[in-house]
Automatic annotation (TrEMBL), chain A:
Role: Component of the RIX1 complex required for processing of ITS2 sequences from 35S pre-rRNA.
UniProt keyword rRNA processing present: yes
Residue span of region Disordered: 1-31
Any one cellular-component term (Gene Ontology): rixosome complex
Cell compartments where the protein resides: Nucleus
GO biological process terms on file: rRNA processing
Species this protein is from: Penicillium argentinense
Family of the protein in this entry: Belongs to the IPI1/TEX10 family.
Name listed for the protein in its UniProt record: Pre-rRNA-processing protein
Origin organism lineage: Eukaryota, Fungi, Dikarya, Ascomycota, Pezizomycotina
Keywords of the record: Nucleus, Ribosome biogenesis, rRNA processing
Membrane-crossing segments per the record: none
SUPFAM superfamilies documented for this protein: ARM repeat
From TrEMBL, chain B:
Domain SDA1 middle: 547-673
Name of the protein in its database record: Protein SDA1
Domain SDA1 C-terminal per the UniProt entry, residue ranges: 696-741
Protein family per UniProt: Belongs to the SDA1 family.
Amino acid sequence: MGSSAKRKKEKQKDFQKPKLKVGKAKAKPENYTDTSFRSKAIVLNQQSLHVAAPSSNSQFAHHISLLSSKSDNQRRDSLAHLTTSIASRPVNSSLPQPVSVMLPSLLPLILDGNSNVRIQLLKLLRTLPQNDVSDHVAQLLPYIRAGMTHLAADIRVSAVEILSWMVETAGEQVVSCAGGWIKTLNCFLSVLGWHTEESSRWSSSRASFGKSGSQGRSMVKVLGALADFLGAGIGQPGEADDELSGQAYFADSWSFPLCETGHHMISESSTPYAYLNLFGQPRDEEGEMYETREDRYRVFSSRFLPAIERGLKSAREEGGELGRASSGVTKVLKEAISYGPGP
Amino acid sequence: MVKRKLGALEKVEADLPNLQHKIRRDPKSYIEDFRAQHYQYESHREIFMAAPTAATDTGIISLRELIDFISHVADCYPDILKDFPQQLIDMLMQHHLVLEPELREKLVGSLVLLKKKDLLDSATLLHTLFPILITTPSKTLRALLFQKILSELRNANSKTTNHKLNRTMQTVLFNLVTSDRTSSKALWAIKLTRELWKRQIWTDAKAVEVMKEASLSENEKVIVGGVRFFLGGDKEREEAEDDSSDDEAIDVGRIKHQLGINKKTKKKARVAEKAMAMHKKKERKKNAPHPLNFSALHLLHDPQGFADSLFSRHLQSTKAKLNLENKLLVLQLVSRLVGLHKLHIMSLYSYFQKFLTPRQPSVTSFLASLAQASHDLVPPDVLEPLVQKIANEFVSEASAGEVATAGLNAIREICVRQPLAMNETLLQDLVMYKKSKDKGVMMASKGLLSLYRDVGASMLKKRDRGKEASMSLRAGEKLGKRFGEQEAGGIEGLELLEKWKEEERRKKRRETGLPSDGEDDDEEDEAENWANWNVEDDDDSDDSGDWVNVQSDVEIELSDSEDEGKAPPSKKAKQTEEEAKAEAEENDKADQDAFSKLATTKILTPADLAKLAELRAEAAVDAALPGSKSRRATQNTSRHTDDPLTAEEIEGLAALSAGKATREERIAHAREGKPDRSEHKSKEAKRKERKQEQGKSTTNKEKARRKNFLMTLGKARSKNKRSLVETRAVLKAHHDRQRRGGKRGNVGTSH
């Protein structure tokens, strides 16, 4: 009998309401910890105080470091800042930082999850000078290929956009750098789904995985990029001829007993002996460099021609915007075939 | 710009596990998606290989996830992924030093997964993982690799022993140990070998060879690892075996019982079936012939050479820098080898000389090693100075009880193995300590005395010899063994069989009415035996080549022997005392013949052998019973030659002679071996506690006792006012209720 009363009391104690009184401070909870402290002085060990505002150069470097920020908006804003500072620099002045410094932090953004970041990245890339880009194509391409085969359709599309920009600016380098021809074509086929006969037919119930996004429009873009790419790789070597003739002209400027001197001079490209692959991993067939149109055409006709023709046929049959886009590719292909393996 | 919820969107799109799940269900339809991911992987790999040190966190999908994904679906597209295992191997081998830990672990895990899917053979896997194990500075990676290698080896040997793989792996380990004797990398070889030895996966001489080389290395850690293996590896193996056989014993009866009671569901049936299958498997395992496992010490090819080089390298040479503890380990191993294989290392005994003083740290271990190293082929003049020194240094009236005990015990242990190491005056001196007031010393001295009553009674003073010994001395038989004398080998327990046969014969003669002590008719018996044998022989020849029938044959023999075995005890009861006495005399005579003629004059039939085994078991049980005469005698010899002699045994009953233990020590000693128990409590209190722990309530009685007083008042008051009739009714109802067994009644037993 005693115990029950006692227990009741104990129970009541647990659930007692604290009494609040008007005009008095609220009672502190039981587990309240007093964190205030007193000190005569507070010393901050590290602080960077400058009288002068940061220079534009240092700001530029800071924004480059911010590219790996966790926040999407921060990345986008930094990219925007970089873009404007590159675009608004005085004409013919060099970049605030060399491209080789910027690229390592820019490249992972090709695969960024946020579309705004990727759009902004493309804008930034477009502002880069053409010569600098053509030297770093080999670095850029693996990321672009990774983007083209990404699970997320949006990333695939923006990677294709970046690729078409690159073909535009440095087409020759894109198709001739190590792994640039076969691997990239493979990626195109995989994006379009043209690898096997079965999967390229329009009627086949293609179980496409992942969110397709705006499938039709992206296919059009991909086809456009493919046309550009093929044009750069195996198109009629018109411009190259010009270049050659220019070189011939250049060679002609030497006096008579010297002939074909241009070939014996040190090459003007940045990495003339890249094809020797002195310092890299050993390459397989796919990763090999195909520097001449002849090589590229040979590989293309043996490995990709049937698949692409098949795919183009089905795309044409599908009609509509897609069919129209496919006709561009068909045109390039016809020209290439008519030109044949080369002179 | 409208803010979108990107996190969720990304999750839906870049969901590799989802794709993996779909691919597993229908690989053909998703081949395009897989191809895309494979290109994705290739590009990421390219990026990675270009700069392995740089952070590989690219976007929302990392290389690690891609590798995981591809290795999980690798078996669906073997032709696309021909090079995949090799790529992973290259990545791991070339860059394991700079890889980020998570990716590194993923690579290892994926390789193991590919092995599981048979896309990689285990030799390649081991050749990949093992070099990394011994070179990597990362502790976590080492732990992971070790575990993977071990489980890989276990799996490869789970069904049948994979000799090829074992051989290559052992060769790799052997080379690792022998290639660089100063490096501590060999520790991995030791760890691996010891683990596999413990699990009985490696039980051959090659593994022992690896350990032998390890203990001859120049690195202290490696030496200790190897030596410890020889000293403790076999015990560890035995314990592991015991453990594995003990755990998860399934009570079949209980399962069946539960199956009968509980609700029958498919799941329960399945569980029960599984348990039964497991039980059956275990039974089969139990009945399977026990695999022959030799101890590591027996599998050594050249014990003499091994012990020699161990001793000269680690103990005798001045360059050896082992500390005392490790030196003792090596010494233990050397002395065990010497004792077990009866080796000769003469300088070993003089090496002991300088350590035999009471001031030497852990001197008991030295004493134990010395005793272990002595055997009956050691020249007595090598051991005698040592025994003398022990006696001088340890055993004196002035020395402490523990010291004298240790000395006496050590001397006894040496003399058990080589009785000739003792001279007469010393022995008589030492035996005098049996009168010591210190219990430990007294018992040790008595031990020595009883030993020499057995092996060299003539060295004792007359009054110490005891009755048996002096009688046998007078008869002139027990003279002690000479140096190098070997006991002629015999069949263990043969004399028991002979005795039994004699008894049988006598019984038979008594039945036929002849005098039981007659000496003839041996031939008759023998003929019978031969007949017995022949019958079996015929059986054999009839269905020669059929193994099953041979098996059944054995069974028949066994049943025969059982029948025979049952007969004698019933008869024994009838035997008169006289006969028993006569028999005892005859037994003595038989003993004097020492080596019985049975084995040399007759051929033992299988039935005989079965009987022999039975008699031997019986004798062993008898000897173990308290009060048996032979018990003490066996104590000296019962030790198996494989068992080590420990320092504790040398210390012996020193604990008894202390007498100065504090109260706490005594309490601790008393508590030793008893399971730890909590404070003392009444039975009732303990019961209550237990009930409360199980979440159970109090009993009705207790509830009644604790009931509120006011609640009981009314009833108590009304009880007083009951009429006689009411009281009777209540009592009657109570009585009936009791008979029924309470309010609820005993169902089924009510009538």
